[in-house]
Amino acid sequence: MHSPVRIAISFLILVSLSTGSLWAQTFETPPYAEQLVQQALEKKLDQKRQWHLLLHYKGTWLGGYESEADGMDFFNAPDGKTDPQAELIATLRSFFKNPETLKSKEEHPQCNFPARYKWLKRELAIDPNQLPRAECTRMENWLAQLEPQSVTLIFASFFMNNPASMFGHTFLRIDSESKSNRQALSNYGVNYAATVDTDSMILYAFKGLFGFFKGEFTVFPYYLKVQEYSNWESRDLWEYELNLTPDQIDTLMLHLWELGGTYFDYYYFQENCSYHMLTVLEVANPNLKLSDDFFISVQPADTIKILAEQEGLISKVTYRPAILSRMEHKTEQMSDEEKEVLYDLVEDAKVLKEDSYQQLMTPQKALVLDAYLDYLEYEGLGEEDFDPKKPLRIPHAILLERSKLKYKRQDTEVTEFSARPETAHGTDRARLGVGINDDELFQEIAYRPTLHDILARDMGYKKDSQFLFLDFAGRYYYESKRFRLDRLRLLDIASLTPYEPIFKKPSWKLNLGFDTIRDFDCGYCNSFKGNAGYGYSYKPSHKSWYILFVLAELEAETSGHLEDNHRAGGGVSGGLFVDFGVDWRLQLSAEYKRFPLGDDSEYIRYDSKLRYSPHQDVDLRLEYQRFDHKDQGLFSINLYY
Amino acid sequence: MKKLLMMGTLVLSLVSFSGSAFAAGYGDAGCGLGAIIFGNEQGAVQILAATTNGTLMNQTFGMTTGTSNCNPAGLVKLEKEREEFAQKNYSTLVKEMAMGEGENLDTLASLYGCSQDSHSDFGSMVQGNFSNIVQSDSTTSQEMLSSLNSEISSHAVLSKSCSGIIG
Predict the structure, then answer these.
(1) B77: nearest CA partner in chain A
(2) Which helix (H) or strand (E) holds A201?
(3) Is B99–A370 a contact, with Cβ atoms under 8 angstroms apart?
(4) Based on the domain organization, do A390 and A272 belong to the same domain?
(5) Rounded to a whole number, what is the distance in Å from the CA of B151 to chain A's nearest CA?
(6) Distance CA B117, CA A603 (A)
(7) pLDDT tens track for B87-120
């Protein structure tokens, strides 16, 4: 079917192809582009730190490079992910792309990679007049809307009764000068987070640990994050204003724009939110060396520490108390009588009609109602199902009652309910100890990567709680000349939350791992053990120097040294922690366990432990434990880093 | 319907006041919140979605597009911002209204264009007129805003110090 039409079409295709390749040829080699490439190679720009930062290259074990960015649009060269030089050459050439050849909605490389363009322009003294002029309207609008004037790093601390939240979270806030009169709330935040695509807890953990989530940068109004963290989850926020020059802020913004178009594989421990906040700040100021120090894991609090160590980088720190911290601050100002009214209100709003409330003076009524409203707001936000017929999540009657007082309360500055993360001890801990039991002397060596134990100095951590992961200890026994695994706790969590009449939170603990059987002599034999406890704690007020606790416990363990290879049962534990300032802490506790299943046995255990911290990252401990009739003493030095 | 007509008139009048700026395209004034949140489609909230407009280079930032529903006077934009802000912070806002003061309330006052020194008056006014502004458990944030708007317009001081009211 050699119709003339077909021939004509073939001819047209041929012509367009040849002109296309002709054009491609001229595009590939504008002399100025090649001149810049030569210049860049002579200056070895591909080996410069800033180039590696801009492209997120990291050295590999084999001596090469690989970019942490995983979206391939981030690179101009096909092998740009692993070849900094090829990417440099391709990037320079891409800036010469004819804007008229862009497809609809396609952006010019000058607009997609403005931070690279800015840096190369400066390094090579590029004459913009010899480059095609690209219109970067979208980016310019974006910048105009953000109006960046300064940059603040936000740290979200832990929340109530959840020790896992002690890891914290960090994100950036772009502060705009013209919005400063509208309060910080109307600025914008920049978040890096995993795009979670599963509801399964197990998949979540697995994907998070091994990099199966896509991590992406997003921009949102700051008030959304304040709602989320301060009000919904009730976590205190710490705002660290950073000292960056306007030029550095400009670079930061341009680089964020570049990152908006790509993604990174998200690793819960390493390439996480905090890590990428650091890499972004390094691009802004390459003299900062922030992300190089991390090897095994990056934790939000550690990143704040690193920033705090950079001289003059943090210009101002602001504490934004969470909703329950603000409420607690109000209850602390109340008399016992007023507290009773508040507790009764939480039980039943009808108390508003009763004398106990009515007899209060207006300022006292306002104080009680304001605390009550904090409570109602927090509870209302937590409600999962939203009723469109009742959009108001705080009962209208209570709001009306408060407004009718026509009284504005000037609150005092809220006391800090959490400490700045940089005052906290390091998250890794190494320990050297020497001890003695009834039979012999021993030496202990221990390490755990994460995070905080209940006896440790608790600045920057949730008080009276514990989160340990892979807590390992081995002991060398001098007399019997043996090295034994003492314990390997896979997970050990405890949360002692003082019981109060409003939220009535319980205390609990959970641990799982290998341990040594200590209540009878089996030659330091090991068992695999799971234990859970549930109960209550008492502490008169937030600032009290002691806390009492009592927990009902369930326990099961398996070992070849037990009859039927296992025992299971439960018991009760209780005791107290006493603080002498922040540097000293004493634990006195006892527990009784009975195992009716498997190896029928029971024991009583006593613990007395004293911890002294001469330094933020060092503590000394003296421990005495008694398991039934077997004693053990231990002195240890613990180093945090 | 009446509200829609009012809006329409407002937009038209703005166009006539600032025809040249409009011809240059939306967004030239650098408008902010509302524009960014709504993108170029009114009502399409895209903050959290962080979606794109299908560009080949996938900019995932929620703030996209060249058009941004704003004008040099910033009024339409401010209204959008207020709606978004009020909806997302509704619980906190009504609480602070009843209390007569608070950070969210100050932010809302700014979104009405109220000068800094009138924020205290703003707080007293919303507290004093709370039952008019938030009428019942079924009051939506939109309804709250429109009542608030009329309260401001009829307020001797605030009607002058708040430049962003409608009507």
Answers:
(1) A145
(2) helix A201-209
(3) yes
(4) no
(5) 16
(6) 70
(7) 889 999 999 999 999 999 999 998 898 988 999 9
